[in-house]
Amino acid sequence: MSGDSFLPLQEEFATLAIHEAQEPEQWSCMEVVTPLSTSTTFKQNGPADFKKYEYSRSGNPTREVLEKVIAKLEDGKHGFCFSSGLGANTTLLGLLKSGDHILCINDVYGGTNRLFTKVASRFGIETSFSEIEADSFEKNLRKNTKMIWIETPTNPTLQVCDIQRVADISKKNNVILVVDNTFLTPYFQKPLMLGADIVVHSITKYMNGHSDVVMGAVVCSNEELSKEIKFLQNAMGTVPSPFDCYQVLRSLKTLALRMKQHSESSLHIAKYLESHPKVEKVIHPGLSNHPQYELTKRQTSGHSGMLSFYIKGDIDSSKKFLQSLKIFTLAESLGGYESLAELPAVMTHSSVPADQRERLRITDNLIRLSVGLEDVGSLVADLEQALAAI
Ligand code: P1T
């Protein structure tokens, strides 16, 4: 998947993930592994005279290392970690005020859609939705648009949005561009290099990759915006626990290896499903029949373990298929070492209004797979027997 026709992979990615900001010399015992610092508070020499940290919400040694690593991997200057992906999104809403407008990509994680339309609206922040094409963003800008929000590839229909073109539009109109990079991670896509102002992550997914931490992150290079995000992180209190930061630091050391395997296996499975008579259509940005395949090659170094497909049949066929799986687990979330399958229409995207789901073709026969790190042969065999059960 990450062959010649895609952007080249960053050569030193794994080295950075393992070593960036983790020099043993910075710790008093020269620890090779970044210590887990659980103290909520730090002794001061005199009132308001502290060495580096004062209170763990404002700054924590373990979290700070993780924030530096994530910033480096995204080719950004400043990283910030949050209690969840939605916690990161919520904090970014603090950059806006009543009367401002967010122009959001139409196919966005259901929870982000709910946060914008059901919560931000209570504070006078409006949201409207744009089609995936860059022109549509330009057309739908309003006088009060202060933020453009995109996910690419989108969740769950895996459409690909031209980051560079949307960045040009946002710059021309003095609007902040936020890109949710959860589905690809910086291993495959670097939105800041393509002109985005802010990258946001659900670290819960590939970045942690072990389905045992809920966390979010933001990366930004603009000094003024970064200062504001740092202020909001402390003022809103949306921080993760040091233990979770420790876990994610550990997970990132294998991110490159994991992403390579997720990528290879998901493409293998996409091709298998394409040839299956009970499958109507497969969506995978690494397939040459994907509508934005050329764009995918221009802006990414490959694709992750995510794919979606339409099964031939109705909700009962989908249910039967999902309940027949033995290795794929029927569950929400994605990006872990274990393979997951779900029905977005009634699970992750049930909070998206029905008419919006209909327009996006998030139908009762759309299945989303997160292809994990099991042997790909056993995954294909599992899909085969579950399709046979319909
Ligand atoms: O779950 P949390 O860490 O709060 O992240 C929210 C989030 C943000 N952005 C994207 C692209 C996401 O996919 C998510 C969470 N998504 C799921 C739980 C899911 O199954 O799609």
Mean pLDDT: 97
Topology as a string of helices (H) and strands (E) = HEEHEHEHEHEHEHEEHHHEHEHEEHEH
What's the quaternary structure here? single chain
For the record, the count of structural domains works out to 2
Shape descriptor reads globular
**CATH fold topology of the largest domain:** Aspartate Aminotransferase, domain 2
The DSSP helix count reads: 14
Number of strands: 14
Quote the beta fraction: 15-25%
**CATH architecture label name of the largest domain:** 3-Layer(aba) Sandwich
Question: Could you give me the name of the CATH homologous superfamily of the largest domain?
Answer: Type I PLP-dependent aspartate aminotransferase-like (Major domain)
Largest sheet, spatial ordering of strands: 3-9-8-7-6-4-5
Provide the gyration radius in Å. 21 Å
Uncertain segments: none
Write the layout of secondary structure elements.
Elements lengths: L12 H7 L24 E3 L2 E2 L10 H13 L4 E5 L2 H9 L7 E5 L4 H10 L6 E5 L3 H7 L4 E7 L11 H10 L3 E5 L4 H4 L9 E5 L13 E5 L2 H14 L5 H11 L2 H20 L4 E5 L9 H7 L6 E6 L3 H10 L4 E2 L9 E3 L11 H7 L5 E5 L5 H13 L2
Parallel strand pairs: 4-5, 4-6, 6-7, 7-8, 12-13
Antiparallel strand pairs: 1-2, 3-9, 8-9, 10-11, 11-14, 13-14
Helix pairs in contact: 1-2, 2-9, 5-6, 12-14
